[in-house]
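Hey all, quick one. A colleague (J.T.) asked me to put the pyridoxal-5'-phosphate job into the tracker so the inputs and the structure tokens live in one place instead of scattered across chat threads. No bug as far as I know, just bookkeeping. Sequence used:
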Amino acid sequence: MNAPLIKRPFDVDAIRADFPILSRDVHGRPLVYLDNAASAQKPEAVIEAMAAAMRGSYANVHRGLHALANETTDAFEAARETVARYIGATPECIVFTKGGTQAINIVAAGLDVKAGDEIIVSVMEHHANIVPWHMLRERKGAVLRWLDIDADGGIDTAALDALIGPRTKMVALTHMSNVLGVKTPAAEIVRIAHAKDVPVLLDGCQAAVHMRVDVSALDVDFYAFTGHKLYGPTGIGVLYGKRDRLMAMPPFEGGGEMIDIVEQERVIYNEPPHRFEAGTPPILEAIGLKAAIDWYESQDRAAIEAHEAALRDRAMDALSGLNWVQLHGQAPDKGAIIAFSMQGAHPHDVAQILDRQGVAVRAGHHCAQPLMKRLGVTATARASFACYNRLDEVDVFIEALHKARKLLS
Ligand SMILES: Cc1ncc(COP(=O)(O)O)c(C=O)c1O
């Protein structure tokens, strides 16, 4: 099935009406949900698709010879097709995982690495794109080479070029920082790495939500993202891998579904993507993710991108006028994810006071401790926006911040 041709004209209130949770109150105030980089809310279409499957057509996939098993298998594989189309891939290159984290772990665990081989990561990676490589360091003696960022959170591609050496086995970088909102020059990164025959993994957990991603055009080797930030359910993520790359990788887990033949003396593994989907896969979650993508693609994505840029600009303009607020990451290509510190206040206290006013932001290290160290802080507050946030919610957020300032100074 192709993406819907007729898009719904952008109307933030119409979008909001699709998300039941957005009409609730928090502490007697209307909810202003600005924690979307951690997890986004779900439209009715997702809730209903999962409930409808459970009510009307549910069984285990791939192994049945009865109607419900066949219907559910069709729904599950249709989800793979939708995901593939969403990122410009073909279905046999799409592995369903339990999240973005597992997608990256599958690649790290499957990489042929010897002691002294090198993995390049940046200092602004999420732990999901650091710790699996650290595990390779611990287990196989791999060496992590760190790409620095500039003061605004930008990546220097010349520095990347210089870091890649004869022992480099992988360049593993974020496509969009979950803390700074900075987008990385993915096409340029891939070009530089491929010129030296080094594969690239992009962590697209944030980018797959806020930008249109085409893995074929990018020519990237691996792309990882997660369902729950993309208005879909938890418990599902996606690993895209080029066919030859996936074919060359050993399985991550063993069990049912991922085999071709099992005998007493030997086992022959299934081909990708099933080789990497041991056991019962996230069936309902795949159906939910398909519903999320179908819902999202029925919207005017260009208008949503413009709206999110307007949210970012309004928030950045207001925050940069406050001399008691420090903004982190002001690179030109920045999405609507804003990390900030308030002078003299701990981010946890800031977040708690905002919460009392109905404004949900996150505070902490955001699973990016090397970045915190690079920024010279232990934690930050973070406001992250989604397509359903209204411009006037930015004003509520800023007003709440003024109140926090009064209470904390
Ligand atoms: C950039 C980035 N990578 C990876 C992850 C991990 O995704 P998940 O928790 O769904 O496995 C996140 C989640 O916060 C993220 O923001």
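Adding what we noticed when we looked at it: The chain is about 40% helix and 15% strand. The chain has a mean pLDDT of 96.
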